[in-house]
Amino acid sequence: MSLYANYVIKNNISGVSLSNSGTTASLTTTTGSYLILPTETNRLYAVMVANLDYEEQNGEWAKQNESIVAKVSDPSVDASIGKIGQDKASFSIGEEYTYFIEATVPPYPTNSQNYIFHIGTILGDGISYVGLDTLTIKDGDKVLNVIVENGTIDGVEYVARIADGDNTVGSISNKFNEREAYVFSFDRRLLAFDNLTISFKSKLNNQSMACRGTILNKDITSNDFVLGSNDMLAILGYSHAYMNYTDNYLENLDISALISYKLTYAFTYKVQMDKHVLGDSTKKLGGAVFEIYSDLALTKKVGSVTTDIDGFAEFYGLKEGKYYLKEVTAPTGYSLLKLPIEIEIKYDESLVDSETGEYCGPIADISNTKISALPITGGIGTLIFISVGILLITSAILGTMYYRKKKTI
Asked: SS3 of 62, please?
């Protein structure tokens, strides 16, 4: 704070309230210099200074009014998935990827009673944290230390401390209203910069959502946001109060907290197969076994499937990209496919289901040829030569047997 502000605090009145009307506040008082500090607010206001003095008007001294436009610095948070600036991405089940949270934390008012704020992440049931050792936290360009240990600060249990050298500047808890989460709590006075960056690794599990749906294009507010199985929420709050999380909804924002959030989406795809007789798609073929590879050389196997009696099979948990389906067992009575089938997973609005608004992945149309007796090729001359050959071989065998029998007698 400037020397001037210190002087105003020391020498001017305190405890005077302004009368409020909408977005305007006013006070009638004596001349002098005033430092205006909010006593109750859910915004972050800069220190305001007013100078009331007299000015000559038409040969007389008149007290002048002072108008001040309050300057507000709101917090903000931006979340990315996979890479900075990306809010939705597809991944294979079990594949590790990175979340990024960028938060702006402006200076607090001089008379703040609470300098603790929280940045939190809540992952859906289909997403798992990889571990605290994947966390990177930066205060500006300065990398802070994450010290994994259990403890308690102000009655709140934590699983790790955040330190700048030997000084603890925050803590990390792994619960949010009994739900698995990362909640980063900081003391604003101990941070050197206004911007924080947090990154950590996660991965999709077997409960992840297989489909890219219409929720991606929906305008979501804190009042109607449904926490699905593939969502992350970043929260920036300026009091000990959190957002009130109940069941599957985030609702009833605490008015004493400043909340900013950004949603990101992690999802996966599936490949579907329709197996039938070549030339007749109504005759389905079950029992075909396919191996799925992510490379043309067929060295990176991602799984295998078997078609059911209706010729249908599907494989969940694939990210966007090209895949190769190699038939290793053909349906009984049908020939094995010689070459792998290439299929590409890529979001295409023209393939979105008109009823559900979802795109879950491509459908591979695969057919087999029935195995039959090999035909005899060639003309009548070929048949004569074959017949004569068989006759000569038979005669030779019989002659040899007769000669050996006669010689024995």
From this structure: strand
Tokens describing residue 207? 């409960």
Please report which helix (H) or strand (E) contains residue 368, including its range: strand 363-368
Cα–Cα distance, 181 to 250 (Å, whole number): 14
All CATH 2.60.40.10 domain ranges of the chain, comma separated, are 269-368
Q: pTM for the complete prediction?
A: 0.71
Please state which CATH class domain 76-267 belongs to.
mainly beta
**Contact in structure between 144 and 163 (CB atoms under 8 Å):** yes
Superfamily of domain 269-368: Immunoglobulins (2.60.40.10)
pLDDT one digit per residue (tens) for the chain, 409 residues: 456 656 666 666 666 677 777 778 888 888 877 777 766 665 677 777 888 888 887 888 887 888 888 777 777 888 888 999 988 888 999 999 999 999 888 877 666 767 788 888 877 777 888 999 999 999 999 999 999 999 887 777 899 999 999 999 999 988 776 667 888 989 888 999 999 999 999 998 887 767 776 443 334 333 333 333 344 555 554 332 222 222 232 333 333 445 667 778 788 888 999 999 999 999 999 999 999 999 999 999 999 999 999 999 999 889 999 999 999 999 999 999 999 999 999 887 777 877 777 788 889 999 999 987 444 444 545 545 555 555 556 565 555 555 555 555 5
Which token pair is 281?
Answer: 């798609």
Residues of the chain with CATH 2.60.40.740: 76-267
